[in-house]
Amino acid sequence: MIKEIAEQLKTRFSEMDIEVPLEEIESKLDALINEYRVPVDEAKRSVVNQYLRKSDIPELVKIRDIQSEGQWVSLKAKVVQLWTSESESIAQAGLIGDETGTIKFTKWAKSDLPLVEEGKCYMFKNVVTDEWQGRFQVNFNKNTEIQEIEENIEVGSSVEEITGAIMNIQSGSGLIKRCESCNRALVKGSCGEHGKVEGKYDLRVKAVIDDGKIVQDILLNKDTIETLTGITLDSAKEMVAEALDPSVVLDALADKLVGRYFKVQGPKIGRYMLVEEIQKMPVASDHEIKELIAQVEAL
Amino acid sequence: MQDAEIPMEFAPRHAQISEDTEPPINRRFGRREVAKRVFAKEYRESNLTFKESDDQYAPLYLLTPTGAKCNRVFIVGTLTEKEDIGAGAEFWRARVVDPTGAFTIYAGQYQPEATRALAEIEPPQFVAVAGKVSVYDPGDGKITSIRPESISVIDAESRDIWIMETARHTLERISTIGSEDPDAKKAVEHYSPDREYYKQMVLMALMSMTDKPAEEKDSDKGGFDVIDLSKI
Question: Is the CB of A168 less than 8 angstroms away from the CB of B32?
Fold first, then answer.
């Protein structure tokens, strides 16, 4: 078994122009698996990472292909968005993107790396993938190198589409208040960054849509909600003023959305799909029904 | 909207079933479970339950004869009966009928939204129900029901969309019977399902949309499902 894995790895290394003797890979795997009793997958990863680091050519990957944590990779990407850093130990954080999608990055203060700028493209060598709450991200550390590059990367909008039923609407939906300075949703009249503020009203829906095969968290903004449900920011304010209870808006929205079928479209940012288009799903025509009946009969 | 669990000692006897005890935020099992689409007839005939780990919060699954591995389901049909069977606290039992049969749903104080909805809805009415699989074993065989998370009144069009969708998903599962798909294999081992039988079930559901009773459109009865078996 070890021999097979070693051969696999050797092929993978040669594809990346790293030549390593087969025996060397084998003995490393053997030590990890048989002596240290490391699970096979962990052993593979450890050997791969050793050589990648040594060779100083961590695999250049596309953002879409980042599907596991703890991998050393390199990325060519554009800085799409910079966020205000939440903590002193983080120098910069935000989103970087390539033609296959976007991913969150965190640049640690300790890493002592140059500042990156929004809209510029860079080669990020030696970054580590990480997973947090089911989403992948990349971390820049002391071993990371950042070089600005000339070419312009078109960031893939990665617009996705799902047609399914809305399962529920989550708290934090309905008539909400946002901070005037940073646009964050206020929690009990307080902004996470600016403390107690007056805030401005907005409409938002956080929901879960499910097509029987996958589940997707979606965010609907004010415009989408107004067009789809007829509930406007002004009418929502009136409803609340009348009922003296902000949850009436959430209930009214749930009445119009939960248990119903929609087709939604929009880019996926982390966990949420930011819905740009939403339509009621059309009913099947008689022709479609007949076609499906024929399909069943043919089975 | 949280998944509240029923503490066994407080639940009425008929709710003391092999409960899926998913905590409000399922940290250990991260992902939200997909709501499977299954017709009532197939759901009723299901009796294979299992967990994939020994952890007390591991989700409970019900495997159906065509191999749908359900923890959560989404069903649409006609609410035909409801009854508050609670002693003291509200506890609703309701029947939701699709073209192939009926689902039984139970909602009590730990399903506040569904309970509120059931108290208000007067049958017959088209409803959409998202909820968790529930299985009760009185000793002589398992009885499947649904513990609803949400119940919404919807229209006949949504009902038709659900029938089409559920027919498609069931059809896909029927065609995996006999394949290497792990859920299908497990279902075959346990139920030895007859493909023809489930094909007929899907047909029955689809035919119900083409053979609409003539008076349904204008009736104000909310459109009862009438299945004329002689036409199938």
Answer: no
